[in-house]
Structure formats: structure tokens, C-alpha cells
Specification:
The chain is an alpha+beta fold. It has 13 helices and 19 strands. A hairpin with a 2-residue loop joins strand 9 and strand 10. Helix 3 crosses helix 4.
């Protein structure tokens, strides 16, 4: 019997794990009471046992795992990781209990933006200029510190925590006044922050499946806007990039170079790539997990692949042979439309030439105050989404034309 422990902080499985379960497997969920509250009965049915704790803190996680594996040979225990939220905790648990699997050095490559960039030094992969926010240097001589940061990065720049995700607590800094205000507000920082040269252009996601240490396949999409634009009122979405296109081939060469440096094992990977105006490609970040939001269902519709299930299959040591469907009859795209501060006075109609599946989650007259928006929450939570759309077309050029419309579409009108 192999005890497969799935650690979750803020996540549901996202697929039918029972389809992956072998006769010798015991599936155990270790999570918090609050996270379990969002699980459906179907989610819970994936597990033979559920061990709960109040908070996802190291000592509580250790205690829960110790309870699960009491009197079990460590060689018969595996820790399964589904997201960068818990990849470091998974590594710490393995070390604490002498379990096989990826260690903390591996986990940090895929969860700490600063360490990931260091891993790529000397590889030929372009990365933005970057600095770690040095609060001591700022406190010692504020003007000298600002001058140093300005000289290294210029304006605009982008500041973000090194170990958070989904653009949480991230901000664009346009000038010295913005930088001074941010620094004054972070004299006692909650996180370690990375300060980056600001890169503008098109943003892409490249999602690969790694079986052992070999690339099984890679899939690509173009984002409507950089993800942090969602909080500024722009749609979040993406469109598939056809594998036979020159764009796919060029981006995938970059992806393969990054994968060679980062050396992921038995997982899905999610890489974000910036393309500047003249075609230069820049590494933004890479996670050792499936893509988030609607990208998994996008790929499932487009390529008949469930990257969530395949990621877990790799984590469980199951040999994955399935490849993307070739020569698709249709191409697909998706978008989320954001909620902003104000009272909704009108909802605009989205008219596309493509087939659409549109869902609306708000109504005229609803009001949203500034207090509704929590700074440290993921901006893509369902409560912040006004509407969603999947759209498809047999003609990729027509789909892309509709994607351009969606990119600039304003779903909601607000009272003055």
C-alpha cells in the first residue's frame, strides 16, 4: 500500500483523481477546515481519508501528516503537490519525515521569482533587470537608495512579492513620486519584494507536461493583457496559439531553453513569456503546476487533454502517453470581465462572429465599494468576475479578430 498525501491550502483537486487511483494506492487529503468547506461531495469522494487542521502552518501540517503516516514505512509514503502555493510546504514535509521526492531547493526554483531568475543566469534567456527590496538600505539613506534603484531599473518599474502568485500585492511604479510613496508604505514589509525593470508587450503562457525529466508536449496561448491589468478594468483572457505557426515554434524554442535550465520533473509547468515590440522574448516566471483559471478547460476543448489530471498522473508516477489532438476542427479562446468600484448602470452586449458561450454574474443596480476589493486576495476570484466567455471558430483568423474585440470590450457601464 502506498499512501499518497495531497496537500492543499486554497485549492480543490480540479479533476477526477479516482481515475488515476491504482489498487495499491491510499489517497489522503490534508487541508484546512476552511478549504474543505468549498469541496463538493464529489471532491471529497476522491479521498480515502481526510485529515484537517485549523491553519496551514508548518507545525499543524507536520502534526496532520504525522498522524496519517504513523506506523507506515516512509518508503510507502508520497507527498503530492498541485500548486506553487504548497510546493515549499511539500518539500519541508518530505525533509521532516525522510520521504522521497523533490526538496526545498527544487521547490524554490518554481515558487520564488528571485531564485528562478538566478537559475537562468548565463543561459542566454533574457530576464528583466531586477533587485531585491533592501529595507535596511532604504531606512539608512532613503535618497541614496532611491537613486540606486532608479539607476539600476529606470522607470517604469514593477514591484511584486517574490513568493506570491496571481499578481497579488503587485504594483507598477511610474516615477520617483510613486516609488517614494511605495517605499514609505513598506518600512515594515510583510513580504520579500522583487523590484523589476518594467517590460511591456504581449504576454504568453506556455504549458508543458514533463514525464520523468522529458518534455511530453507543450501548449501555448496569448493573453489579452498582462494579468495585473484585470484589477485596472481590462479583461483577462487568452487564445490558443496553433502549433504549426511560426509564433508557436519561436516561443517553444524559448520554452525548451528555460525548461533545460529549470529542470522540472514529473509535473506540468506554466511559463509566462513577454514579447517586446521588436520580438525580443523575456522570461517572466515559471511554476511547476498546471495553468490556472479557464486555461485547463481551454486546452481540454482545444486539444482533448486534461492537464490537471496529467499533472497528478505524473506526480503519482504514472506513465502518461496521451498527446494533443492534431488538426483541430475549431480554435478556442476565453475571457473574464472584471468588476470595478461603482454602481452598474448598464451591461453591454458582446457581439462576435464566433460561436460564444457567455455567462453573466452581475446585474444593473449592483454597487461595489472600494472595501469590496481586498488587496491581498487573488484578483481572479469569482466574486471579482462580472462575466465570462468561451468562444470558438473554424477560422483562426476570424477567432483572432474576435479576440481583439474582446481584448478591448467593456462589459459594464457605471454611474458617474
Amino acid at each position: 500500500m502506498t499512501t499518497q498525501i495531497f496537500l492543499y491550502e486554497l485549492k480543490r483537486p480540479g479533476c477526477d483523481l479516482l481515475e488515476l487511483k491504482r489498487a495499491e494506492d491510499e489517497f489522503v487529503l490534508v487541508t484546512t477546515n476552511s478549504n474543505l468547506a468549498q469541496y463538493t461531495d464529489t471532491d471529497k469522494a476522491n479521498f480515502d481519508r481526510i485529515e484537517l487542521m485549523e491553519d496551514f502552518e508548518k507545525e499543524q501540517v507536520y502534526a496532520a501528516v504525522a498522524k496519517v503516516i504513523a506506523n507506515t514505512d516512509p518508503n510507502d509514503v508520497r507527498i503530492i503537490c498541485g500548486t506553487e502555493m504548497v510546493i515549499q510546504m511539500c518539500a519541508l514535509v518530505r525533509t521532516e519525515f525522510g520521504l522521497a521526492g523533490d526538496d526545498l531547493e527544487y521547490a524554490l526554483r518554481f515558487s520564488n521569482k528571485f531564485i528562478a531568475k538566478q537559475k537562468l543566469h548565463g543561459s542566454g534567456v533574457r530576464i528583466p533587470a531586477y533587485e531585491i527590496f533592501d529595507v535596511s538600505a532604504f531606512q539608512q539613506d532613503p535618497d541614496a537608495y532611491i537613486n540606486t534603484v532608479e539607476s539600476a531599473l529606470g522607470y517604469p518599474m514593477f514591484i511584486k512579492p517574490t513568493e506570491l502568485y496571481a499578481a497579488i500585492d503587485s504594483i507598477k511604479i511610474s516615477d520617483r513620486k510613486d516609488l517614494q510613496a511605495w517605499l514609505d508604505d513598506h518600512k515594515e514589509p510583510k513580504h520579500i519584494y522583487e523590484m523589476d525593470e518594467f517590460i511591456s508587450g504581449k504576454l504568453y503562457h506556455c504549458d508543458s507536461l514533463i514525464v520523468g525529466d522529458n518534455i511530453s508536449y507543450s501548449l501555448l496561448g496569448e493573453y489579452a493583457w498582462p494579468c495585473d491589468f484585470f484589477a485596472k478594468g481590462y479583461p483577462l483572457g487568452s487564445i490558443v496559439v496553433p502549433p504549426d505557426s511560426d509564433k508557436f515554434k519561436r516561443l517553444n524554442v524559448f520554452n525548451k531553453t528555460v525548461l533545460t535550465c529549470m529542470q522540472p520533473r514529473n509535473c506540468a509547468t506554466h511559463l509566462e513569456i513577454f514579447e517586446k515590440e521588436h520580438g525580443e522574448l523575456y522570461f517572466l516566471e515559471m511554476a511547476a503546476r498546471p495553468p490556472g483559471g479557464p486555461i485547463v478547460p481551454l486546452y481540454e476543448m482545444q486539444w482533448q487533454l486534461d492537464m490537471n489530471a496529467m499533472h497528478y498522473a505524473c506526480q503519482l508516477g504514472i506513465d502518461v502517453q496521451q498527446q494533443p489532438q492534431s488538426n483541430p476542427e475549431k480554435y478556442y479562446a476565453w475571457a473574464y470581465f472584471p468588476i470595478s468600484v461603482g454602481t452598474i448602470k448598464a451591461i453591454n452586449t458582446l457581439n462576435l462572429n464566433s460561436q460564444i458561450d457567455f455567462k453573466l454574474f452581475v446585474e444593473v443596480g449592483q454597487s461595489f465599494s472600494a472595501d469590496f476589493f481586498v488587496k491581498d486576495e487573488m484578483m481572479f476570484l469569482s466574486k471579482y468576475i462580472a462575466g465570462s466567455v468561451f468562444f470558438s471558430n473554424n477560422d483562426y483568423n476570424q477567432l483572432y479578430a474576435d479576440f481583439e474585440k474582446v481584448r478591448h470590450f467593456k462589459l459594464l457601464e457605471y454611474e458617474d
